């Protein structure tokens, strides 16, 4: 499969909205049958990039080839070859399940001979058997999401773009959804997916981390974990976590500190020398360390260390309104990073009808 | 163009219209309400003008004169007052539009063969009714004078005198000169302007507002298929609505239908293309339902109401305004409809109006096909 031409090629892609640079000179390649993860905080430029790849936005400069076709020059031929699921649910709520499927089958000109089989497949895949006659607006978020995926792939596109497909659905639905993604990839479909859930990033074959429009790292999840951390990572459990974080941010030998759950993660040059140093440093400030050890970094640690997210949280939130226009759903996203399991509780609740 | 996509689009639009209470209301209720509102509410007939009389003499002769007003359908003698200030107050309050003052020497002057003046005061705030009232009053006075003259001549043994010239008036097409008959065909055009433009103005904007547009434009559907698919159901609805109005006009309001049904259908189809394209155009440009519907109301309803010849005859407009009416498509449709309902003259006599409609249908139709871009902004 590696000999096949890449499904998606992006070269020096730039998108500006006025003075604002949403996508700043990114290049990447996705191979056929790959699950390609596009990871980054809200407003990093993920949606803008995916929209350019689908021909929905014109790049300011640079080139994007999808299925070998230039998206700026031949957007219609690109659209024959892709399925797209936008971040916001965008099927017709006032149509029944079966009517939405028939409509999109029509839009993709699914041949009459295939129609029944494809629609049955989509209904089965989405777990909507027996609910064909329900109004789409009355479905729960997880079903809606799977129906949207079903509608987007009725024409068996070789490449699928999914923009934060699982935001706002419950954990079980998310797992089901990722099973579907894996099944598609097994069939040779290239899945280009954006997410800000760390656990989902682990499912990808390849990841690109993007922050403020720029690619900050790329590689397989394993490569990223090994390469991207400068120094060692320490897990620190203590009392007065908040105070400890404040003190440690300026402490000698500590490159970075962040809260993870009830504990702190510290980035240090060398674990061996830093462990006693930190213990002493905190002890002099009246903080008791109950546990400290060197740990293997998770993707989340990589993410936090590579993006400016933890330092400029407020600023990032403000920028988001400008970047992802029309996306009002995922404000809770930046707060999720404190949850080591990656299960974004805040989002889940918001997404429920 | 792909026929399957076009049909899928049209089918989807039809389902959405059917499920949307507001659309159903506009499609069904609007034509009926407008037909009744305009059919009964708008009347250009000036009849039963309220008159107060201050008869200073109260003689047999003066009463005869006043009775002439009472007998006319154009006047309604509401009350007789006893003083001049009372009459002034009545006009001030708007209780009457005409104040008639018969002088105390009315009969004595008449009997002695002198000329007598009756004062008539008109409320000029509505200049149209005032001028109509004035000519009716003069006509009544003239008829009365004529009768007195004839009686006088007969009394002197002159036999039956002849009046040299008389007019034998016949009104064609609207025999009883009822304004309702002229209004109803115009209302049909108004209904089309509103239903057509207003409904289509929502279709594209709604998809942008609800976010469904992003999914739609990620499919291979072409802008032309989107437009034709979205407008097709409204052509059917538009034709049904026009027919509904026509049937109401004929059966309920008693308006004749003297022309050919094909002239009616062809002109309606052309006008539908005009208004649907316009509504679609606004919808694409405005991107929000509120803005699109407001713009379409202002751009079609008002011109159709004021500048199409519906309210005011185009011939009577100042030259500049008359020039503007040429860019109001409803003007041509209105002219054709009046002809089809009332005159029934051959279609060829209306070629200019058909040409006007055809030009607008072509220009706006083409503009609508080009305005939509499959891009987010």
Automatic annotation (TrEMBL), chain A:
InterPro entries tied to this protein: AAA+_ATPase, ABC_transporter-like_ATP-bd, ABC_transporter-like_CS, DrrA1/2-like_C, P-loop_NTPase
The keyword RNA-binding appears for this protein: no
GO molecular function: ATP binding
Short name of any one Pfam family annotated for the protein: ABC_tran
Domain ABC transporter residues, every copy: 8-237
Composition skew (Basic and acidic residues), residue ranges: 310-339
Keywords: ATP-binding, Nucleotide-binding, Transport
SMART domains: AAA
Region (Disordered): 310-353
Alphabetized PANTHER family for the sequence: ABC TRANSPORTER G FAMILY MEMBER 20 ISOFORM X1, ATP-BINDING CASSETTE, SUB-FAMILY H, MEMBER 1
Name listed for the protein in its UniProt record: ABC transporter ATP-binding protein
UniProtKB/TrEMBL annotation, chain B:
The protein's name: ABC transporter permease
Keyword match Transmembrane helix: yes
Record domain ABC transmembrane type-2: where: 134-375
Species annotation: Geomonas anaerohicana
Topological type in the membrane: Multi-pass membrane protein
Protein family: Belongs to the ABC-2 integral membrane protein family.
InterPro entries attached to this UniProt entry: ABC-2_transporter_component (IPR051449), ABC2_TM (IPR013525), ABC2_TM_bact-type (IPR047817)
TM helices/strands, residue ranges: 21-42, 183-205, 231-254, 260-283, 295-314, 354-372
One family name in Pfam for this protein: ABC2_membrane_3
Keyword Disulfide bond: no
Localisation per UniProt entry: Cell membrane
Keywords assigned: Cell membrane, Membrane, Transmembrane, Transmembrane helix, Transport
Recorded coiled-coil stretches: none
């Amino acid at each position: 499969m590696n000999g096949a031409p890449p499904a998606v090629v992006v070269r020096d892609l730039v998108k500006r909205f006025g003075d604002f640079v949403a996508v700043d000179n990114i290049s990447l390649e996705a191979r056929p049958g790959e699950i390609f993860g596009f990871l980054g905080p809200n407003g990093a430029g993920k949606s803008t990039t995916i929209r350019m790849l689908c021909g929905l936005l014109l790049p300011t400069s640079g080139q994007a080839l999808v299925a070998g076709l230039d998206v700026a020059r031949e957007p219609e031929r690109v659209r024959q070859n892709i399925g797209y699921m936008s971040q916001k649910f965008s099927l017709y709520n006032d149509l029944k399940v079966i009517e939405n499927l028939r409509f999109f089958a029509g839009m993709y000109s699914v041949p009459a001979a295939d129609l029944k089989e494809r629609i049955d497949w989509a209904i089965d895949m989405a777990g909507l058997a027996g609910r064909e006659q329900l109004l789409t607006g009355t479905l729960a978020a997880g079903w809606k999401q799977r129906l949207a995926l079903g509608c987007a792939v009725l024409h068996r596109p070789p490449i699928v773009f999914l923009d934060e497909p699982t935001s706002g659905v419950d954990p079980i639905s998310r797992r089901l959804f990722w099973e579907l993604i894996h099944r598609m990839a097994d069939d040779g479909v290239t899945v280009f997916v954006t997410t800000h859930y760390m656990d989902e990033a682990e499912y990808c074959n390849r990841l690109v981390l993007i922050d403020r429009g720029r690619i900050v790292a790329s590689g397989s999840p394993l490569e990223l974990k090994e390469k991207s951390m400068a120094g060692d990572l320490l897990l620190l459990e203590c009392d007065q976590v908040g105070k400890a974080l404040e003190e440690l941010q300026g402490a000698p030998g500590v490159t970075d500190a962040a809260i993870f759950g009830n504990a702190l993660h510290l980035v240090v040059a060398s674990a061996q020398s830093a462990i006693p140093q930190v213990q002493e440093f905190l002890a002099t400030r009246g903080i008791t360390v109950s546990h400290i050890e060197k740990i293997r970094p998770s993707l989340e640690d990589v993410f936090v260390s590579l993006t400016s997210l933890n330092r400029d949280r407020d600023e990032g939130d403000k920028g988001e309104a400008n970047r992802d226009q029309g996306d009002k759903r995922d404000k809770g996203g930046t707060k999720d990073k404190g949850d080591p399991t990656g299960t974004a509780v805040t989002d889940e609740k918001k997404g429920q009808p | 163009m792909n026929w399957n996509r076009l049909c899928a689009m049209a089918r989807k639009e039809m389902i959405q219209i059917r499920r949307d209470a507001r659309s159903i209301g506009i499609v069904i209720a609007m034509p009926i309400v407008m037909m009744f509102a305009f059919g009964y509410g708008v009347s250009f007939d000036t009849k039963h003008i309220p008159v107060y009389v201050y008869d200073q003499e109260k003689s047999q002769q003066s009463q005869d004169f006043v009775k002439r007003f009472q007998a006319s359908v154009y006047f309604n003698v509401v009350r007789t007052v006893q003083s001049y200030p009372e009459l002034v107050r009545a006009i001030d309050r708007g209780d009457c539009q005409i104040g008639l003052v018969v002088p105390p020497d009315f009969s004595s002057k008449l009997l002695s063969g002198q000329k007598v003046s009756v004062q008539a005061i008109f409320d000029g705030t509505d200049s149209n009714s005032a001028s109509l009232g004035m000519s009716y009053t003069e006509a009544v006075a003239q008829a009365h004078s004529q009768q007195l003259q004839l009686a006088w001549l007969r009394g002197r043994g002159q036999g039956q005198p002849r009046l040299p010239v008389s007019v034998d008036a016949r009104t064609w097409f609207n025999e009883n000169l009822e304004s309702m008959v002229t209004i109803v065909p115009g209302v049909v055009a108004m209904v089309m302007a509103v239903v057509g433009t207003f409904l289509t103005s929502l279709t594209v904007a709604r998809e942008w507002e609800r976010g469904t547009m992003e999914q739609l434009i990620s499919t291979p559907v072409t802008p032309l298929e989107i437009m034709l698919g979205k407008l097709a159901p409204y052509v059917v609805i538009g034709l049904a609505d026009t027919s509904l109005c026509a049937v109401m006009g004929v059966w309920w309001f008693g308006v004749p239908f003297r022309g050919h049904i094909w002239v009616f259908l062809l002109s309606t189809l052309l006008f539908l293309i005009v208004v649907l394209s316009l509504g679609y155009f606004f919808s694409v440009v405005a991107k929000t339902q509120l803005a699109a519907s407001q713009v379409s109301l202002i751009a079609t309803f008002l011109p159709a109401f004021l500048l199409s010849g519906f309210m005011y005859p185009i011939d009577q407009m100042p030259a500049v305004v008359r020039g503007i009416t040429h860019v109001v498509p409803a003007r041509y449709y209105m002219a054709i409809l009046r002809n089809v309902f009332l005159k029934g003259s051959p279609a060829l006599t209306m070629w200019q109006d058909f040409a006007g409609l055809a030009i607008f249908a072509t220009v706006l139709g083409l503009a609508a096909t080009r305005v939509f871009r499959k891009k987010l902004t």
